[in-house]
Every structure is written in C-alpha cells, then in structure tokens.
From TrEMBL:
GO MF annotations, alphabetized: cytidine deaminase activity; identical protein binding; zinc ion binding
Tagged with keyword Zinc: yes
One GO CC annotation: cytosol
E.C. numbers: 3.5.4.5
Boundaries of every CMP/dCMP-type deaminase domain copy: 23-147
Official protein name in the record: Cytidine deaminase
Gene Ontology biological process: nucleobase-containing small molecule metabolic process; pyrimidine-containing compound metabolic process
Record's keyword terms, sorted: Hydrolase, Metal-binding, Zinc
Keyword Hydrolase attached: yes
Family membership noted in the UniProt record: Belongs to the cytidine and deoxycytidylate deaminase family.
Root EC class: hydrolase
Species for this entry: Croceimicrobium hydrocarbonivorans
Length: 162
C-alpha cells in the first residue's frame, strides 16, 4: 500500500468589538461599512461593502455589483481589490475589510472566488493580506492575518507549467 499523506486544515478566528480596534483599523472598518451604500444589489438585496488599505495608507472602497445576467456581477471584495490594483499597480495591499448587512445572521466570509483573488495578490506581493470580517449585527470583527488562514491550499502561478 502506498504512503498516504494527510492534509489538515484548522482555522480559528478571534472576534473583537468595534471599541477594541485601533484608529487605523476602525477607519478601514468604517470605510467598508460606508461602501455598502454604493452596492448595486436589486436582485439579492444583500449589500456588501469592502475596503482595502494600501501600504501608502490609501483606502479603496468596493461594493457588490449585481446584474440581471447573474454571472456578470462582481463581489465587493473583488471590486475593491481590482480598483486598487489598477490605481496603484505596484503598491502592497495591507488589509481588507468586508462587511455584510446589519440584519445578516451569517458571518461575512468571502466566497471562494474572492479568496482566490486575495491569494493571488498575496503571492504577487509576497506578503499577507490581513482580513477584517465585519459582523455588524453584533458589532464584531473577526480577524485573519492572511488569506491562507481561510484558504490554505490556494492555486497560484507556481502551480503552472513553465
């Protein structure tokens, strides 16, 4: 019998209240909360906001954008990341905050597509992207030091043939 290898994944995120955030973190959270107001979500009625802080301390906002042709929409995280990538192509992304509606009873975990995009930026910049997952119903923020904490087996260019 061949050697069987075991892969395990364990993720533990600590929550903290809004009051426990430092001023820079609170500013990023506020920008994500504010970005929800620019969501175009007439179909799901689920407004999501995101904000990415760059190494130069610029904050770029994003909000989900839906379309009647459902696959044509885009999540708030990717809107913010792609906008930041276009406006500041060589700048490191330090942190990304994501929030869901105040009435949401689900935690604000990004979808797999957004996690993959985050992982791509981490690979490109060779450093982690801190995540702030905002749960407004309880005024809590769940933190992850890197996308790898939520998606440890991401695909990147090192997997492609040369």
């Amino acid at each position: 019998m061949k050697n069987i290898k075991k892969l395990e994944f364990h993720c533990e995120l600590q929550a903290q209240s809004y009051q426990d955030l430092n001023p820079s973190e609170w500013e990023l959270v506020q920008k994500a909360l504010e970005a929800r107001n620019r969501s175009h979500s007439p179909y799901s009625k689920f407004q999501v906001g995101a904000a990415v802080r760059l190494a130069n301390q610029t904050i770029i906002q994003g909000a989900n954008q839906e379309n009647a042709a459902y696959p044509s929409g885009l999540c708030a995280e990717r809107v913010a990341l792609f906008a930041a990538g276009v406006q500041f192509p060589n700048m490191t992304f330090e942190a990304l905050a994501v929030c869901v509606p105040d009435t949401s009873t689900n935690l604000p975990f990004p979808c797999g597509g957004c996690l993959q995009v985050m992982a791509e930026y981490e690979y490109k910049q060779q450093s982690g992207l801190e995540l702030f997952l905002i749960y407004p119903a309880e005024e809590l923020v769940f933190r992850a030091e890197s996308t790898r904490h939520l998606m440890p087996f991401s695909f990147n260019e090192s997997h492609l043939p040369e």
